[in-house]
Amino acid sequence: MSIAFDRHHWALILGGSSGFGLATAQKLARHGMNIAIVHRDRRGAMASIETGFDAIREAGVRFASWNIDALSEAGKKTVLDDLTAHLAARSGDDEAGRVRMVMHSVASGNLKPIVTPHASLGDPARRARSGLAARLGITEEALGDAVRGVLTDDDAAFALNALADPPAYDPELVIGDEDFAQTIFNMGTSLASWTHDVHQRGLFAADARVLAMTSEGNEVAWRGYAAVSAAKVALESVTRSIAAEYAPYGVRANVVQAGVTDTAALRHIPGAAQLKASARLRNPFGRLTRPADVANFICLLCTDEAAWVNGAILRVDGGERIAG
To answer: In CATH, what number does 9-110+174-323 get?
Structure first.
């Protein structure tokens, strides 16, 4: 199937400067969709980010971006005011642009554990590292260096990474109520207000998509991930409600559950190396999910043929979840 999107259609991507958001923007642009990206990054990171944006511009579509706090009312208003102007019919064109897709790919959450690890329990990975180093008569640092030296993308020894880099947690930091509330809003319920405001301004296309990103952390308890897990569950709930209540207006809403992917957001999670190792070993294809894998699927969801998919959680993981 050859995909070519309507030249008046736009994708509005919240969190599109890296990872899934950027890969999706680049994929949709290659198939003719105009792109609007909202992101929040430091000035020092903009040089590399602009390189990713250049790939969108080179596709020949219209492109707009805002380095702004998408989670504030002021930031949202600025973006939607500007986007409305971008969508307005241009000279010689009797049709205004419309938002075909809103993608929520915001990674702004708190990664503190909910309780200080009990001293008597210790950390299994650190105990294993310490015990093996003692048996070998070398330092823990030397053991870590040796293990890192044999790890390759095609080597089952990748699972030994816990001996090289065990997860580290600050024992003084424990998550609080405000951390939970902010994370749940940032990564979860904020999708409802963005969808509402795009709808209220009449910016949605007659057949539109709202897409949210979740992860296996929606069901599995990872230490330090409690607030993000809560946010993902809230995001899924909000998306189901959007699917039910906005359907009469032509909006379809779905959640994409990607497999473990080596993104900047994942690397911030304590124990990320262990998550990647586990995913590689159980994935039937023997590799991690890539942003392009997810972007390819989201592109399909934006086609006319996917119009009857609504309110679903769709796994894009190569079979990782069902493999154990």
So the answer is: 3.40.50.720
